Amino acid sequence: MRLEVERLTLGYGRRTILAEASLEPLPGGAITALIGPNGAGKSTLLRGLAGLLPARGSVRLDGEEMAGQSLERRARSIAYMPQSLPQGVALTVMEALVGALKASPTAEGMPSARAAAERALALLERLGIAELALVGLDRLSGGQRQLAGLAQALVRRPRVLLLDEPTSALDLRHQLGVMRLVRELTLQHGLVTVLVVHDLALAARFADRVVMIGEGRVRAQGTPEETLTPAMLAEVYGVSARVERCSHGHLQVLADAPL
Amino acid sequence: MSGATLAVAGAAAGYRALVLRRVALLALLTVLLIASLLLDVATGPSRLGLADVARVLLNPASASGPVSVIVWDVRLPYAVMAVLVGAALALAGAEMQTVLNNPLASPFTLGVSSAASLGAALAIVLGVGLPWVPQEWLLSGNAFLFAFLSVLLLRSLSRLRGAGVEALVLFGIALVFAFNAAVALLQFVATEQALQQLVFWSMGSLARATWPKIGILALALAVAIPFTARAAWKLTALRLGEERALSFGIDANRLRDGALLRVSLLSAVSVAFVGTIGFIGLVGPHAARLMVGEDHRFFLPAAALCGALLLSLSSVASKMLVPGLMVPVGIVTALVGVPVFVALVFTRGRRS
Ligand SMILES: Nc1ncnc2c1ncn2[C@@H]1O[C@H](COP(=O)(O)OP(=O)(O)OP(=O)(O)O)[C@@H](O)[C@H]1O
Ligand SMILES: [Mg+2]
C-alpha cells in the first residue's frame, strides 16, 4: 500500500487554495500528520486526497490514479472523516454506523444488516463507547460526537484512512485511546493513515511523518524531529516556541509568545 | 463478564429491541390506517353504516341501486383516494426533506402545489391546455404538467453554476411566489364563474376521486416505491452529511435527482387529482421522524403511513365538521393535523 501525491492543486470554484502540493510517498503502516495554522488548507488537502474536490495533479494509490475511479470504487479503499457531523439528525450511533456500512459495498463486499450491526458494535467496543450505541447523535456531547464520526469512517475497514481532527474535542484519555487505536489499526492492516491534528505533541508522539502546511503550500515534511523546529514554527505559525524532550523522551512543543 | 462485554451485550440486545419496536410501530400505524379507512367508508351524509357498506362489498348482487352507487362511486373512491394521496404526499415530502437536507421542504412549500394551481388556472381561465388531452382531463393534465415541470425547473436552476442544496430550497420558495403571482393575475382577469371554479379547485377536495384516477395514482406509487426502497440505505447515509456520503461512495447528485424525479411524479399526480392539500407532505415526515427516527428503512414507510392516516382521518372529519355537508378536505387537514402533531411533539419531549 502506497499513496503518492504529485503537484496536486485544489480549490473551491475559481479560488485556488492549495497549489502544486507534492508529498513524499506515504507508505502503508505509517501515520502522517498534517499540521498548520487555521485556514492553511489542511482540510482541503484531505478532501483532495479523498477525491471530494476537483483537482489538478495526481493522487495514486498503489500506482493507480484515483481521479478516474468511480466514487463507489474509491469508497472501497478510502475512508474519510470530515471535521464535523451535521446537526439535527434523528439517528442513533448504531443506526448511523449500520447506514455507513450499508451505503455502498466495502472492500469486503456488502454485509448483511445483521453482520453490519455486529461489526458496528465490535468497533464501538474498541472505541470504548458501546454504551452510546443507542443514543441519538443529537444527544451526544461534542467529544462523543467526534468519536461517533470517527467510528463511521473506521467501520468501513478502509485501506486508506483520512481523518480530519479526530481528537480535537476529546479528553486526555480519549485522545490517547483514539491515537493508539489508529496506530494499532494502521500497523495491523498496513493502512495509509493521514490525519489533521492541532496538538503538536500528539503529532510528534504518534505520527511517523509530519507535513506542515502554511498558506496553501507544503512548508515542510519529514519526521517529527525534522519538521517541528523552532524556526519552522516561527515561520509558519508565527509564534516563538521551544521544542524539548520530556523526561520520557517525547518531543514537546512549548509555545511562548506570538511573534 | 467484564463491564465492556456487558455493555456490548446490552447494546446488541438494545439494538435488536429498537429495530423490533420500529417494526411494531409500523404495524400499529398500518392497523390504525385500516381502521381509519373503514371508518371513512362507514361515514357520510347518507347514513349508511359499516354493516350496510360491508353487505354491498361482500355481496354486490344483494344491494339496491342507490346504495351500491353510494358505496362504489362515492364512499370507497373517496376513502381510498385519501389513503393514496396522503401516502404519496408524505412519501414525497420525506424524500424531499432528506435530499434537500431541510425540514421545511415539502411539495407545498417548494412550489409544486402552486405550479399545479397555475396549470389549473390556465385551463380554467384561458382554456389553455395540452392539445391531445381529452377535455375532461384537461385540468388534471395541466396541473400535472406544471407540477412536474416545476420540480425539474427547480433542479436545473440549482444546477446552474452549481448553486447547491441550500439555494434549491430558496429557489423553491421564490417559485411559490412567482406561481402565486401568476395565478393571482389570472384570477384578476377571470370571469366570475371561472374564478369560482378556480378557487374551489385550489381547495383540495376528495370529491374529485374516481376509479381511473385512483388507478393512475396507485400506478405512480407502484412505479416510485421500488426505487425509493432501493435508495433507502443511501438516503440514511446522506443524513450524515453530503461529504461523508460522498466518501461512502454515494453519488449525492444522482441520488438527489432520482429522489426529485419521484417527488415530482408523486406530488404532481396527487395535486393534479385532488388539488392543494398542504399540511400532509410537511408533517407526515415529521411525525414519522418523531416515531421511528431517520433510518430510512423505517422512516420512509412510516412517513407514507402517517400521511395516509392523517388524510384519512381528515376525510372522516371533513364529513362530520358541518352536518350534512362535506367540507373540502384541504381545509380540514391542518385542523386535524395540527393537534395530532402537537400532541406527538409533546409526548416525545416528555419521554426523552
Ligand atoms: N467549502 C469551501 N468553499 C470555499 N472556500 C473554502 C471552503 N472550505 C474552506 N475554504 C477556504 O479554504 C481555505 C483553507 O481551508 P481549510 O478548511 O482547508 O483550512 P484548515 O487548514 O483545515 O483550517 P482549520 O485548522 O481551521 O480546520 C480557507 O481560506 C477557507 O476560507
Ligand atoms: Mg480543517
UniProtKB/TrEMBL annotation, chain A:
Q: Does the keyword Membrane apply?
A: yes
Record bears the keyword ATP-binding: yes
Question: Keywords on this record?
Answer: ATP-binding, Cell membrane, Ion transport, Iron, Iron transport, Membrane, Nucleotide-binding, Transport
The chain positions of domain ABC transporter read 3-240
User: Which CDD domains does the annotation name?
Assistant: ABC_Iron-Siderophores_B12_Hemin
On the tree of life, the source organism's domain of life is Bacteria
Its membrane topology, per UniProt? Peripheral membrane protein
A single Gene Ontology biological process assigned to it is:
iron ion transport
What Gene3D superfamilies does the record point to?
P-loop containing nucleotide triphosphate hydrolases
Q: Which SUPFAM superfamilies match?
A: P-loop containing nucleoside triphosphate hydrolases
Principal location class: membrane
One Gene Ontology cellular component term attached to this UniProt record is: plasma membrane
Q: Which GO terms describe its molecular function?
A: ATP binding; ATP hydrolysis activity
Annotated family: Belongs to the ABC transporter superfamily.
Report what the protein is called.
Answer: Iron ABC transporter
Upper taxonomic lineage:
Bacteria, Pseudomonadati, Pseudomonadota, Alphaproteobacteria, Acetobacterales
TrEMBL record, chain B:
Q: Which GO terms describe its molecular function?
A: transmembrane transporter activity
Which CDD domains does the record associate with it? TM_ABC_iron-siderophores_like (cd06550)
Q: How does it sit in the membrane?
A: Multi-pass membrane protein
Chief localization: membrane
Transmembrane stretches, start-end: 23-41, 78-96, 108-131, 137-155, 167-190, 210-229, 263-286, 298-318, 325-346
BP-aspect Gene Ontology terms:
siderophore-iron import into cell
Localization annotation? Cell membrane
Q: Which UniProt keywords apply?
A: Cell membrane, Membrane, Transmembrane, Transmembrane helix, Transport
Q: Does the keyword Zinc apply?
A: no
The entry's cellular-component GO terms read: plasma membrane
| Family of this protein | Belongs to the binding-protein-dependent transport system permease family. FecCD subfamily.
Q: Report what the protein is called.
A: Iron ABC transporter permease
